[in-house]
Amino acid sequence: MDGSSDVLVIGGGIIGLTTAWQLAQRGVSVTVLEHGRCGQAASRAALGALWPPPMARGGALQQLHRQSLWGYEDFIQSLQAASGLHVHYQRRGKVELLNSTEAFRTATEQCDAANTSWPALGDKPVMELLTGTQIRQYEPHISDAPHGAHLCRWSGQVNVDQLLEALITACIRCGVRIVEGVRIDHLESDSTRAVAAHAGGQKFLAENFVLCAGIGLPTITCQHELSPPITPVKGQALLLRVRKEVLTHIVKNGMIFLVPWQDGRILVGSTTEPEAGFDTTNTAEGVQFLLQGATQIAPALKAAAVERVWAGLRPTGPKHRPVMGKSPAFDNAFVCAGHFKIGIGLAPLAGKFMAELITTGRAEPGMEAFAFTGNAQ
Ligand SMILES: Cc1cc2nc3c(=O)[nH]c(=O)nc-3n(C[C@H](O)[C@H](O)[C@H](O)COP(=O)(O)OP(=O)(O)OC[C@H]3O[C@@H](n4cnc5c(N)ncnc54)[C@H](O)[C@@H]3O)c2cc1C
Questions:
Q1: Is the Cβ atom of 290 under 6 angstroms away from ligand 1?
Q2: Which of 114, 127, 164, 217 could cross-link to 39 by cystine, CB 3.0-4.6 Å?
Q3: Is 181 in the pocket of ligand 1 (CB under 6 A)?
Q4: pLDDT at 192
Q5: What is the predicted pLDDT for the residue at 64?
């Protein structure tokens, strides 16, 4: 039997680590239990692209995402101070190519809405429309964009490897105990409370339990219902290297997006393959889709070196929405999982709101939209 903690966080991805760090900053004694190495799963596969959803998409998830991104720079600064490590975060802006006159019309409305309601960034509009000629002033290597583009200056990127290392270090410096190589298979409970997490012969006691195990969540059994099914959605991605700068902004065209870094790397994302289940192979079709999409945006990329290809499994909640809140079974078990394609962007606010809920018992306004009330709901 292992010593007891105030809170056991099960799963050491971006969501579990952020939640653990936020809890530890509130004076809570926290243990993170991670199946393999922290960050090894979906989080390490992410490209670190951060762009706010357009105003036309006005649901609770979109609002939470935008709010999380408005605070990202502050989050990174606090993390750097707490960890003593550098985390590269940059708001490069995103040029998103528009594929029809209808898309241009919708983008006009989106720009107006963003410019009146999003936080300002200097004296330039946060979003603006670009004609084909204007696009080339910003991005001379883009091939053809007959319907123009919009430029979103709030979009940015974070170095995910650095982010995860800094979170692990900040957690340890704050007193979080991280135990790697432990796969929780069972949550023990009495009639009213969760009492221990089991991993093979090991037993971990705690006052509270937070399930942040991503696609591993459904494998954790319990006498009571803990969480909805979190399913995997495979995404393939690749890394190109160029000798001289080809792009200065993030560029998006349909499903394909390119994230350039100053050191000549360009990340290319990503496929969306719900039918692939737990398979993480890179397929010829997937890689071809990414390469074709990337070189169609900027033909100069045909000369780029392909440095790495990989695939990850995005933990996905029902209707592509995360589940965040108290488990329906017990007052002392919580779930935070299923952040699909935007977990890196949502993590700062998701972790903060979970820590508030666990320490005060109060859900932040808007969080009820992510509550899980049972599979029979
Ligand atoms: C190709 C790709 C590109 C992406 N790009 C972006 C992007 O640009 N921007 C963005 O915001 N998001 C992006 N995402 C999404 C993002 O990666 C996820 O939303 C996020 O990583 C989810 O974090 P998590 O902590 O919930 O899950 P995970 O990172 O999967 O962490 C869950 C952890 O729990 C552990 N675990 C599982 N079962 C158990 C168990 N029984 N006991 C103990 N531990 C367990 C796992 O080992 C894992 O480390 C991308 C995803 C992919 C695949």
A1: no
A2: 164
A3: no
A4: 86
A5: 95
Residues with Cβ < 8 Å from 130, sequence gap 6 or more? Answer: 95, 138, 148, 149, 150, 151
Are residue 14 and residue 106 in the same domain, yes or no? Answer: no
**CA-to-CA dists, residue 369 to 47, 64, 170, 325, angstroms:** 27, 10, 30, 10
Average pLDDT on 245-257 reads 96
Residue 47 Cβ < 6 Å to ligand 1: yes
Residues 144 and 192 in one domain: no
pLDDT at residue 112 greater than cutoff 70: yes
Locate 346 and state its tokens: 């949502």
CA distance 377 to 375: 5
Mutate which of 2, 9, 15 for ligand 1? The one with the most ligand atoms within 8 Å of its CB, which is: 15
pLDDT score of 180: 98
pLDDT band per the 50, 70, 90 thresholds, residue 67 = very high
**Nearest atom of ligand 1 to the alpha carbon of 346:** 11
- Report the CATH number at residue 121: 3.30.9.10
356 inside domain: yes
**pLDDT over 50 at 377, yes or no:** no
To test ligand 1's pocket by mutation, which of 168, 230, 314 has the most ligand atoms within 8 angstroms of CB?
314
Q: Are residues 276 and 140 in the same domain?
A: yes
> In this structure, is residue 128 part of a structural domain?
yes
Residues 139 and 17 in one domain: no
Domain count, the chain: 2
Provide the whole-model pTM: 0.96
Cα(294) to ligand 1 centroid in Å equals 25
- What is the share, in percent, of the chain residues with pLDDT greater than 70? 98
Output the CA 9–ligand 1 centroid distance in Å.
14
Burial of 180 (0-12, 13-18, 19+ CB in 10 A): middle
Q: Is 15 in the pocket of ligand 1 (CB under 6 A)?
A: yes
pLDDT of residue 57: 67
Q: Please state, in angstroms and rounded to a whole number, the distance separating the CA atoms of residues 4 and 14.
A: 24
pLDDT in tens, 25-50: 999 999 999 999 999 999 999 999 99
Host domain of residue 37: 2-46+161-228+318-370
